[in-house]
Automatic annotation (TrEMBL):
SUPFAM superfamilies xref list: Acyl-CoA N-acyltransferases (Nat) (SSF55729)
A Gene Ontology cellular-component term: cytoplasm
Recorded superkingdom: Bacteria
InterPro entries for this protein: Acyl_CoA_acyltransferase, GNAT_dom, Ribosomal_N-acetyltransferase
Name recorded for this polypeptide: RimJ/RimL family protein N-acetyltransferase
GO MF assignments: protein N-terminal-serine acetyltransferase activity; protein-N-terminal-alanine acetyltransferase activity
PROSITE patterns: GNAT
Ranges where the N-acetyltransferase domain occurs: 28-189
Keywords (A to Z) from UniProt: Transferase
Coiled coil found in the keyword field: no
Keyword Zinc on entry: no
Signal sequence interval, chain numbering: none
Database matches in Pfam families: Acetyltransf_3
């Protein structure tokens, strides 16, 4: 699947597409301005995060797409092209037709429904293009905003799994939500 510069999905003012080298500065800027918020929830974000990490991330993303291992995407304003955040379908288990979804939104744009809209588009991509039956969303229990996004997708809370993830070196419990193809209503375009 060579979708190196193609739009994967767009609707409701957002566009999803694979990260490209031309996105490096805008992505780094979005992470940098959001650093304090992102560090609370995402283990890859730290005080040490730098532009070189962004370059390495984009290289990883391009290789992942080329090898169809996982599908990290930028979330962009459909009109201006502004980087609004990131989203991805990863941890693929092709034999069981399942994967996971993760998402974040730049702090200046949080609270505007961007994650909800992007997650709906990414779920449509996962179900229609990747032929998955199940998407899991793994969330730190106190991340209320991410829980609301999962709930807005009609994902169902399944459990709080003990020591499910390691976050900044510490084993933490996580809330597991699942979204099934049968429960998902594709976005209207």
């Amino acid at each position: 699947m060579d979708l190196s510069s193609s739009s994967i999905r767009s609707g409701e003012g957002v566009l999803l597409r694979p990260w490209q080298p031309m996105d490096t500065d805008a992505l780094y800027g979005a992470v940098d301005v959001s650093r304090a918020q992102l560090m609370q929830w995402l283990p890859w974000c730290s005080d040490a995060y730098c532009r070189a990490d962004t370059v390495a991330w984009i290289d990883f993303c391009r290789a992942s797409w080329a090898q169809q291992r996982e599908f990290p995407m930028g979330v962009f304003d459909a009109v201006s092209g502004e980087v609004l955040g990131g989203i991805g379908i990863n941890h693929l288990d092709r034999a069981n037709r399942r994967g996971a979804m993760g998402y974040w939104v730049a702090t200046p744009r949080s609270g505007q429904g961007i994650a909800r809209r992007a997650a709906r588009l990414a779920a449509d991509f996962a179900f229609a293009d990747l032929q998955l039956n199940r998407i899991e969303i793994v969330i730190l229990p106190d991340n209320i905003a991410s829980r609301r996004v999962a709930q807005a997708l009609s994902a169902r809370w399944e459990c709080d799994a003990r020591e499910r993830i390691v976050h900044h070196g510490e084993a933490r419990s996580a809330s597991i939500y699942s979204l099934l193809r049968a429960d998902f209503a594709a976005p209207q375009t």
